[in-house]
């Protein structure tokens, strides 16, 4: 699945509504896939709305994305805008996903709560 421009914008808008250090758990690993000047627009939006973020982390994401290094960029993005943790559950380890079968009880089978 792709973490695209729309999701980038929606998550940045939602961030201030979620309190201090929220966590993310996604079903399916997300490949960071943005277009154009999305990260520049993200910076402007975050600054204009006084949302705390790591400028250094956003710059690192921008550099890595430009080089085609997509591994764990979605996780890096969430942490850059103040999420305390990020996990993705999938059937493979792509982008650091936790391998779990969603047909199972995740707590009973994997100890995931």
Please explain how this structure is put together.
By secondary structure, this protein is α/β, with parallel strands linked by helices. The chain has one domain. The chain has helices spanning 5-14, 38-48, 55-66, 73-80, 106-110, and strands spanning 2-3, 23-27, 31-32, 85-90, 98-99. It has a 3-stranded parallel sheet, covered by helices on one side. Helix 1 runs parallel beside helix 2. It is globular, with a radius of gyration of 15 Å. The model has no long low-confidence stretch (mean pLDDT 92).
Strand content: 15-25%
| Element pattern in H and E | EHEEHHHEEH
List low-pLDDT spans. Answer: none
Number of helices: 5
Largest sheet: 3 strands, parallel
Count the beta strands: 5
Radius of gyration: 15 Å
Calculate the mean pLDDT score and round it: 92
Q: Please, what is the oligomeric state? A: single chain
Give the end-to-end Cα distance, rounded to a whole number of Å. Answer: 23 Å
- Which strands sit side by side, in order, in the main sheet? 2-4-5
Number of domains: 1
Structural class: alpha/beta
Name the overall outline: globular
Helix content: 40-55%
Write the layout of secondary structure elements.
Blueprint: E1 2-3, H1 5-14, E2 23-27, E3 31-32, H2 38-48, H3 55-66, H4 73-80, E4 85-90, E5 98-99, H5 106-110
Parallel strand pairs: 1-3, 2-4, 4-5
């Amino acid at each position: 699945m792709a973490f695209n421009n729309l999701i980038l914008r929606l998550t940045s808008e939602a961030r201030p509504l979620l309190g201090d250090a929220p966590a993310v758990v996604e079903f399916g690993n997300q490949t960071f896939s943005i277009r154009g000047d999305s990260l520049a627009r993200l910076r402007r939006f975050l600054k204009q709305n006084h949302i705390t973020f790591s400028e250094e982390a956003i710059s690192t994401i921008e550099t890595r994305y430009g080089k085609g290094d997509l591994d764990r960029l979605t996780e890096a993005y969430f942490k850059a805008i103040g999420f305390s943790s990020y996990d993705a559950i999938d059937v493979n380890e792509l982008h650091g996903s936790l391998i779990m079968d969603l047909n199972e009880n995740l707590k009973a089978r994997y100890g995931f709560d």
